[in-house]
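USER: Please consider what follows.
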Amino acid sequence: MVEGLPDVDVTEIDIQRMSPYQSNRMYLRDRITETLGLTMAEDWPNYQYKTARNARKSALHDRLAAAGAYFAEFSGWEYPDWFAPEGVEPKVEYSWGRQNWLEYSAAEHKAAREGVVLMDVSLMSKLLVQGRDAERVLNRICSNNVAVPVGRIVYTQWLNSNGRIEADVTVTRLAEDSFLVVLSPSIQTHCEAWLKRHTPPDAHLFVTDVTSGYAILNVQGPKSRQLLSGLTHVDMSNEAFPYLTMQEIDIGYALVKAFRVSYVSELGWELYIPTEFALHVYDILVEAGEAVGLKHAGLQALDTLRMEKPYRDYGNDIDNMDTPLEAGLGFFVKFDKPGGFIGREALLRQKEEGLQQRFVQFLLQDPEPLLHGGEPIFRNGESVGYIRAGGYGHTLGGAIGLGFVENKEGVTPDYIKSGSYELEIASVRYPATASLRPMYDPKNQRVRSSM
């Protein structure tokens, strides 16, 4: 209120975290009745509410249910969290240990690393930004440079005047005056307001929510090119279709926007399919996928796959109290681009003064314990932070924790490397390996694979 910006993380209490339909009176009546009754209940990992469900579904919901999907809810969306094998009821048995679905998700994780998986991520919010001033306005808001050729995909953060992260998005240039901004549904309302707030009144710019216009099927894994090449006339090779580019391809009778991007650190494409063609394209992919061992995968697998890299997840690993420099995202900040960007001066000051916290990836040396988030981090026996997000690294062979190591005297790479680390779980400390570099595919070779 006093400074104009919060001095604590507000991602979980920001009124703009809600989708507009979540202010529906029936929704509020049903959900509030349930949440009040859970105030003193056990806060199980991965707990799912039971009320105000099954309202917002992707066009593929029934197909995925038939394939064994267990549906969770995020920002009002029903999405496949994991898939049960044939003959097994998709139902969670809550516990603080290994929950019953973990082995199913582990198989999905393995399939993404070794074969090819199909994920429905239609819940991602999509904002179409158009107008002759679209590039100018977006380039002022984005810390990365979005003045790129048509078809290029840019990963970037939106910052406030303190240099802290307000949003974590991708921006794809569709035409000279048209961009697609893709973001988490939990920050859609906030991002729409942020865009409006930072668009000059005389700017020629229009923002359209096209989320419901496209289903998104994520085809990921070493065999993704083999699968898609057999279904389209477009050349899917590295030379013709480089990493971080978008092209329109044909699949069956549909024209699909294919984005060569990955949140799992494997070769893959995200297919943006006009909603009315979603079932048609899905059926073709599943039928053709039988020959290459295509496996359905849910967002639990997506989460553990991305943690091994580790790709960031706004609202979990990073939030509005962190800067890109602290979050290890400085490579995506273009300080020298024409016109600058919001938060540039604050980041330059921080760069000169040094960092007091850094994003670190941890791997427990004991393969048995699990991490859920919130566990204290100890360096040389002293508390230096806590884990923000945890999961199991099925490829790395142990629990992964993502968190920030803090020190008022400064946190340099040498400070991280020279420490001995432990993570505390239920009052027991477990040795952990800490790394500033990705533990999986540190050279970023798999997403750029030519195979």
In short: The first strand starts at residue 56 and ends at 57. The longest helix spans residues 25-37. The domain at 354-435 is CATH 2.40.30.110 (Elongation Factor Tu (Ef-tu); domain 3).
